[in-house]
Amino acid sequence: MKRKYSLIMLALLVILSGSCKKFIIEEPQTALTEEQVFKSLDNIEPLVLGLYTSWRNTKKDRGGFVFTLGTDEAQQGAYQVRTDDRQAGLDRYNGFLTASNTALAEQWNSRWPVISAAAKVIYALSLNTEDPERKNRILGDASFIRAALNFEMSQYWGEIPLIDQAKFAEYGTKRQPLTLVYSNIVSDLENAVKYLPASQTDKRKATRGVALALLGKVYMYAPVSSGVRDFVKARDTFKQIVDAGTYQLVDNYADLWNPAKPNSSESIYEFQFNNVYPDNNQTQWQMGSRSLAEIDQYAYFGGYDLMVPTQYCYKDATAGGLWEAGDVRKSESIRYDFTYKGNIPVLNPAFGGDELDPHVKKYEDIRTDGSLSFWLSGKNIFYLRYSDVLLCYAEALNETGATAQAVDLVNTTVRRRAWNNNLPDDKKWSAAMSQQDFRTAIMDERMRELCFEGWRRMDLIRTGKLVDLVKTRNKWTKESGSVQPFHNRYPIPLQEIKQNDDISEADQNPGYSNN
Amino acid sequence: MAPLLMFLALIQGSQLSAQELVTASGKVTGKDDGMSIPGVSVKVKGATTATSTDPDGKFSFKVPTGAILVFSSLGYGSTERPAAAGMNIVLVATTSELQEVTVVGATIKKGDLTGSVSSVGEKVIKEMPVTNINQAIQGRVAGVLVQSNDPRPGGAVSIKVRGNNSIQYGSNPIYVVDGLVIEEALNTINPDDISSIDILKDASATAIYGSRGANGVVLITTKRAKNGDGKIEYNGWYGVQSFNKNIPYLNAQQIADLRIDAYANKYMDDNPTADRQTYINSLLGTNSVAFSQDELGVYRSGQSYNWLDEITRTAIQQNHTATFSKGGPDGAVYVSFNYTDQMGLLKTSNYKRYGGQINLDQKIKPWLKIGTNTNFSRTEESYIDGGVFGIAANANPLLPINDQITYLSWKGIQSTDLYNPIRSLNIDGKGNLNRLLTNNYVVATLIPGLNVRSSIALDVRNQNYYNYIPKSLGQSLRNSTNGSATQKKESWVNWQWDNSISYDKTIGKNSFSGILSFGLSQNNYNYNQVNASGFATDDFSYKYLGGAYLKDQFQLSSDFVTNSLISYVARFNYSYDNKYFATLTGRYDGSSKFGNGNKWGLFPSLSLAWNVANEDFFKNIKAINVLKIRAGYGIAGNQKIDDFAYRSLYRPVFTNGSVTYVSDGRLGNPNLVWEKQKQLNLGLDIAILNNRLTFNADYFLIHNNDLLMRRTLSTTSGFNNTIANVGSLLNQGFDFNINGVILNGKDLKWNMGANISAYKSKITKLYGNVDAIYNYGGFTGVEIQREGNFFLNQPLNSIYTYKFEKIAQQSDMVRVQGIDYGGRTIRPGDIVPVDVNGDKKIDDADRIVVGKKDPKFYGGFFTDVTYKNLTLNAVFNYSYGGKAISGLYEGLLNGTGEYSGHEDELNRWTPANTESNIPRAYTGSGRYSVGETDYAVQNSSYLRMSALTLAYNFTQDFMKKAKLSNLRVYVTGRNLLTVTKYKGYDPEGGDGYPTSKMFVFGINIGL
Prior knowledge:
Chain A: It holds the Pfam family SusD-like_3. Chain A is mainly alpha-helical.
């Protein structure tokens, strides 16, 4: 009897042990594998949307303004400089601006996964056989994202790795010459122009217009040594945008900063934010005044002084600064008055001392006032606006010999709007302006129009003015006196050198120690 | 050592010289559990004189000189010994139940656990009033490092067997409770229910757990009723706990003086020609840049405020267990109930456990037996917010205690990170856990010696976590949540189905046994969590989520994960004449954690033993009772990595109104394979002088290959990290244990024991051509950390940083000005790092491994002195030669006076105190901070008296009258004494909290 039972049991065991191979196959129940994601357009599309979000997120919070620190328009607040050596190095251009600078490494690290995923999408699409039209649209998205980020990386770091699945064996992850980098950026943007639609209902997505505008910029901003810089091509590209008439300046400069009026006719592309985490941008937390934060955490222009305007940027021309009388952009860009609900804040002597000096105003989000912490500020942030295209177009005209046309363009568009569409004669630029004077004037005009919007460092680098202008206008750079030409590039982060087999210490940008 | 041996020999000699009728006396205990055995028959060989042991296992009667005594008892093998006074008889159990230990899927004889095994019996566990089994074995077992690093009630205790063999995943041993593998939440097991803990340390011992035994196995066997009369027992204790010592913080006036000095130093650096005193006067004036006017008021008043006192308290702990047991020839029943209540040392924190154990076994047919070991428990906890202690301990002593302010401040500047700790006590944090651990078996004996066994084991856990942050708290204001509630519900269902066939056979002097086993196990986990914000009132706490109005801030999350394992095991034992032993084990495991083609691992092991003392040529050597030589070699494995590590995963994320797919940042690695530990163990067991002195020594050599870790990647790969087999580690060392009965008189007995262990690790290989794997972290996640880096040919737990040279003096100024300190300026009184490569530049190349965190050796010792009914027992543990970073101490040497400070600052460098080794006061940046070099790396050696117990066992006479079988009362002091140079809270517990001490009163009653 007992043997019979036991034999049944034994037999059962033998059967079971044979059929158990499947028992140890477990698949994720709540995630897609990489194979699944890249297999179908239905999955690739939300992935690309995710890349737009990741790109947007690089513009958030402290990290979004790292590149604007250490320029002639903005610098760190005194309290920040006093308490964080490494971050202070971004303004001081001293021994803390080295390979181990963590603020820069963070920016470097946050962009590559986006570039790499865009590259994977581009490769996957080349193998995909679904609806060609839809496929090409996604190719436009991915090409644009890769180009925009490669462009940004290369502007600041010079030679960068090119991530291309199809050529991985050849390229690896080593730094590539500028000629190759920029020709890739251009061809990506040409694809984007070709495949992206003229308008998007989903404002997170790029349009043909922004691809074209960026392409124009690339022709202007690319280093001469890349072989891509070409003011004729730039001029023609911008002309194409202007002639198409897709974009118009908004009448009232103030409307650009009104959170109730997002994605206006002037907006070519803006990063979409709101007041709900994780889609807020925390920007005001970095821009506002600590003195206000002391009074009330929900005061909408409070914050912690990461980035404040330089004296040059907030002072009138009569006082050696930037602003001309009657320019409406001054009071829309910069906050001078800190009276809040009748309270005049006092400067705590233990602070850095500049907490009640003029502050950046463009990112104030009135919607948070009284109900939300300024940490939840979440106005959209401009990537490219039409006034930038107009100014770039004017500059390209000037560089190609049409200075008078350039002057007229500035007078009739950007400057006209800056004086409430009624530019006084004494504020009009003279048609007789020389090409060289125009070059100087346009740099100030760009600051007046576009200050704190993220283009300044690139403008300084491409015009070769970084050292001269920053050294005189940025308080901390001036104080340390150590900025040098090699600072036109940032150092390759130490951990990249250590972890990337294709980048060694010898590949560091000149002038920097691997510290 | 020599005097001790002579002393023992002396006692021995005096006993042998007795004449005529002498008194034979002593005590009989069981080998496995060390418990006394009552009712053992003690006869004079060849005569009728006999007695039996009392309920304490003791006997005493007159016998002729030179008589041989025969000890026998049901269920134990008999033994013969020459009569003497104070005999210490150890009987070996023969009935399988007492000698067996349930491993996964099978029961095997304890004696068959060849290889390196350390055991702790019921008697030792009982000695310590603890609620956690790891605490019970702390300092008791060679080669096992037990560290309690969380003084919160119910806090975890970490345990390491033979140092680190895995570097990141599964570096803790697994626990096997009555055959069921559990890896977490050990707190639910009541030490009072445990009859033995066996720690398997080498591959030949852990081989049966091949897939998971790489870092040791802790076998826990719960109690089984003994044959005989039914028994009722009660164990209870009541304790008062308080924090041991705190850091000597600077008080308000000292902080203020430090700050003045710091500001003045900075000012004079920047304005060398200015007048220091004028500046200091301005700091104390109405427009001070260094002080708020309120702070100056406190400074002048001479007061100082201790915020920590506001949130701490003396805590009461209590534990009660009642057990009922009865065993018979056909079955046994053991039932227990337990209640534990621990107040936390921080206000509002609390831990309670209700639990019970049912162990049954019953013969259904002469050839069929069934049984269960089932444990159920519920724990209930109140949490205090994690940041409260640190904020309160480091609060500004110049800031008057105030429960109305939202944030604490320094210099009158509120910090939104410093939530008022008194207000944080209002955060309502609760948790509970329901758990069922059950293992149920049926075993059939087909022919004598051949058993077929099948068991189903379940570990079912349901855990809930609740939290509510009231509206008015800084945590709520800062994030604009208007009150935020969290509910998290987690569920685990782990099951294990094991089947085995075993066979035992003895032919003449040859003994064979073998087991074939097949098992499946699966772990299922799921959770869901809701965070909701916006509450009209705080009154409902976390309980009514439906009332939350900030709908756009709702966050939902959940997940479902399953992983599974298949195991085949074959094990074969052979012994000849109790002299030669061999065990061969093979295990073949498949795990769902690896990709196709890499799921399976083979784990063989072999162990051999030679019991030299049983050889004929050794029979005449009376002084040596045991001499056993062991050798074992085997491979163990580790697969305890994250699920699906072989795949890159993308998950939907809702953002800006639609769903996007986002990578979790981890690169899937299809080439992942099992981590394997090749372990060699050589051991020696010796017992001499009638077993009064025993030694165990083990040497081990472990090659750890294919180490599993999550390493960071260059983000140009598109990912941040990947889990990979990154390298190899060599680990070798020894465990040494000695126990001795020093005095064994009628009234006075003295036992001592000590153990010492050491290990040394070296990384012998890293992936690719790299010679280092760095641990990136910090605020931005990109800084090389001082700990957690791996360097080729260096020990595993290294500290990597700049080397401290000296505190700069005026005479060093010329030299330091020739060196590039990367933006820093060094002035007299500042830290100077060593320019290791002498290139006049302090950069990455000057960072080196400055020390290792592992101790040179560690262990414990104990002493038991019994005089009549009174026993004094002390347990010590120690660790020597390790280094540690104390982030807390480093922070307190910041020298600014703008943050809390350590008393060592009082001796800081000043132009008048240039011999000091404490950097000068300074505010602002631009010099090396204390944490940037190895300046403050600490010596983490310590000696701790972890328990001191005085117990009284009531006399037999008393118990007879009271009709009790056992009555013992005791007082214990835990952690009363620690000797260390470590400057943080505790070299063992780290810097989270100070250690605590406890006074306990307890009672054991048996009926």
